[in-house]
Design a protein that fits this description.
Order of helices and strands: HHHHH
Helix content: 55-70%
Distance between the termini: 14 Å
Radius of gyration: 14 Å
Structural class: mainly alpha
Oligomer: single chain
Number of helices: 5
Length: 82
């Protein structure tokens, strides 16, 4: 995950009223900010469920190559990462 969305999400947490969820989000984003994605599937699904996700539950991690291919395919990489 790119540092910009992590920072944006951490800033948004300051406005969050639910203490336990705020603590969990901070733990998750802290790990991601330190490039620790060892729990990414469970953490992503936690965030997904808290946002009432119904389609797209994560089942496995992408390899770095799969992730790169996804980003190239789905995003204008130059504008997304600048």
């Amino acid at each position: 995950m790119h540092p910009k969305p992590i920072h944006w999400l951490l800033e948004g947490l300051k406005k969050q009223n639910m203490i336990l969820e705020r603590i969990k989000y901070r733990e998750v984003l802290g790990r991601w900010g330190n490039e620790d994605f060892s729990k990414i599937v469970d953490e992503r699904n936690f965030i997904w469920s808290k946002n009432e996700g119904t389609i797209g539950r994560a089942t496995d991690r992408l390899t770095k190559e799969q992730e790169r291919e996804y980003l190239v395919k789905e995003y204008d990489k130059q504008s997304y990462f600048q």
